């Protein structure tokens, strides 16, 4: 309480008490038939003044003590509200139910509990939000209205080639890419979303960039930058274009030959007994090339759409003997011997159809790119968790600088003898795709004039009790 207020209260109490005491004395004198002069006795006046003074002092002390108690409780309530506003966690106020501030204290406690629940919910949502952004495969960066970084995820750092989660830093100092910075600047200027496709020069990645204007309130906004990596898609598109171009080129050669020689025959060459067999043979050879090319292309398409494995239990030696029967005319024609070195009891579990295509192609190449009277060896072994099929020949061999490329689509060895065989350049590419579908690998070791050895390594499946495994002899 202020001194002036204390003095005013004291004067009011003193006057009131003095008047009340005077009235009481007056009544007492009148009722007691005392002389009026007694009322004005100086001793009685002094008594009234002294008692009024002490009673006023006691009342002021009582008021001051009550005021201090109330002020203390108000200070406690105020401090708790300040602590709640500051995000602290003060203890609940416990007042007696009869206290004047009991209901107010209970309300503040309830506000604190509600604020704590809201904050927990907010933290949970914020963690979920940040976790979602962090694990997105697209690059995300959020900027505030002062063009400073608010947050950025790992994908953005990977795309930009440096740490981008630099809160409080100006984005223009960190991006270091003119096209992307210009896109963001347009968003700040126009307050509209921007979109473009751009290339990041430092890593040659192609990204689909979105700069999104996000209004938060009437006076506040954010800008969200989204980068989606298109590099792999662009590479696939280019591969598709290259594939179509290569297919068109490869198809054009036999089709042109068939068309040209058939037109020549129709224009009168069919009556030339010397030219007729020669032209028909060329048309047949080109037709076979065209058929082989179409079959290889269809095989590639089937592999990409059917990656599921149909497992069978295969006795590999008998399986290879069966496959070799289809090559007997070619083997007899070129007098090539095939040595089946696979053990009788060698049994594997694998996809019969995919494995047959691999074996067919490797045997066909071993025969096709071999001299008359040559040899082919087929063997197998098991190593820890894999089994291997080895096809070796003593044929023409493959130059060292071309061995890494023979599994590329449409690639053919650059020598005259290989060109004369009329391969499509897709055979080994198809083989590699089939082996990859079976979770395996293939490698080659070769020397020109000595021969080639192809080694196929596939996972060893030993669970013979599986329901999806069928017996295949």
TrEMBL record:
Catalytic activity annotation: ATP + protein L-histidine = ADP + protein N-phospho-L-histidine
Enzyme class: transferase
Subcellular location: Membrane
Residue ranges constituting the Histidine kinase domain according to the UniProt record: 246-462
UniProt KW Lyase keyword: no
Gene Ontology MF annotations: phosphoprotein phosphatase activity; phosphorelay sensor kinase activity
Gene Ontology CC terms, in alphabetical order: plasma membrane
Keywords, comma-separated and alphabetical: Kinase, Membrane, Phosphoprotein, Transferase, Transmembrane, Transmembrane helix, Two-component regulatory system
InterPro entries hit by this protein: BphY/WalK/GraS-like, HATPase_C_sf, HATPase_dom, His_kinase_dom, HisK_dim/P_dom, HisK_dim/P_sf, Sig_transdc_His_kin-like_C
EC number: 2.7.13.3
Transmembrane segments: 12-33, 45-65
Alphabetical list of SUPFAM superfamilies matching this protein: ATPase domain of HSP90 chaperone/DNA topoisomerase II/histidine kinase (SSF55874), Homodimeric domain of signal transducing histidine kinase (SSF47384)
GO biological-process terms attached to the record: cellular response to phosphate starvation
CDD domains, alphabetized: HATPase, HisKA
Pfam families, sorted: HATPase_c, HisKA
Protein's recorded name: histidine kinase
Species of provenance: Liquorilactobacillus ghanensis DSM 18630
């Amino acid at each position: 309480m202020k001194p002036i207020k204390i003095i005013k209260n004291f004067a009011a109490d003193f006057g009131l008490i003095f008047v009340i005491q005077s009235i009481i004395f007056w009544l007492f004198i009148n009722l007691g038939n005392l002389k009026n002069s007694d009322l004005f006795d100086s001793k009685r006046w002094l008594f009234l003044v002294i008692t009024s003074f002490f009673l006023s002092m006691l009342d002021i002390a009582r008021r001051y003590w009550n005021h201090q108690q109330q002020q203390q409780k108000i200070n406690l309530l105020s401090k708790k509200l300040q602590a709640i506003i500051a995000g602290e966690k003060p203890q609940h106020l416990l007042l007696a139910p009869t206290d004047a501030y009991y209901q107010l204290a209970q309300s503040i406690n309830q506000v604190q509990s509600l604020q704590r629940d809201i904050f927990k919910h907010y933290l949970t949502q914020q963690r979920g939000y940040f976790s979602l952004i962090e694990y997105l495969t697209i690059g995300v960066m959020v900027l505030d209205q002062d063009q400073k970084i608010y947050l950025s995820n790992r994908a953005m750092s990977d795309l930009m080639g440096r740490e981008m989660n630099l809160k409080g830093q100006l984005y223009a100092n960190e991006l270091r890419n003119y096209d992307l910075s210009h896109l963001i600047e347009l968003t700040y200027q126009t307050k509209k979303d921007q979109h473009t496709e751009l290339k990041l020069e430092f890593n040659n990645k192609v990204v689909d960039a979105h700069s999104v204007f996000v209004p938060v309130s009437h006076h506040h906004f954010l800008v969200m930058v989204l980068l989606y990596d298109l590099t792999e898609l662009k590479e696939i598109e280019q591969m598709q274009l290259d594939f179509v171009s290569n297919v068109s080129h490869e198809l054009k050669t036999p089709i042109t030959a068939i068309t040209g020689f058939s037109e020549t025959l129709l224009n009168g060459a069919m009556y030339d007994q010397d030219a007729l067999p020669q032209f028909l043979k060329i048309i047949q050879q080109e037709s076979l090339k065209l058929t082989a090319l179409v079959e290889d292309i269809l095989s590639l398409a089937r592999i990409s759409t059917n990656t599921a494995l149909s497992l069978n239990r295969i006795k590999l030696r008998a399986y290879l003997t069966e496959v070799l029967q289809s090559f007997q005319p070619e083997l007899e024609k070129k007098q090539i011997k095939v040595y089946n070195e696979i053990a009788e009891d060698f049994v594997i579990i694998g996809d019969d159809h995919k494995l047959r295509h691999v074996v067919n192609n490797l045997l066909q190449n071993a025969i096709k790119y071999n001299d008359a009277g040559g040899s082919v060896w087929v063997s197998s072994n098991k190593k820890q968790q894999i089994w291997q099929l080895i096809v070796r020949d003593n044929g023409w061999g493959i130059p060292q600088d071309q061995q890494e490329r023979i599994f590329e689509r449409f690639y053919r060895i650059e020598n005259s003898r290989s060109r004369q065989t009329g391969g499509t350049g897709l055979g080994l590419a198809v083989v590699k795709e089939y082996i990859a579908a079976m979770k395996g690998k293939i490698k080659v070791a070769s020397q020109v004039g000595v021969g080639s050895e192809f080694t196929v390594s596939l996972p060893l499946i030993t669970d013979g009790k599986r329901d999806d495994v069928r017996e295949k002899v």
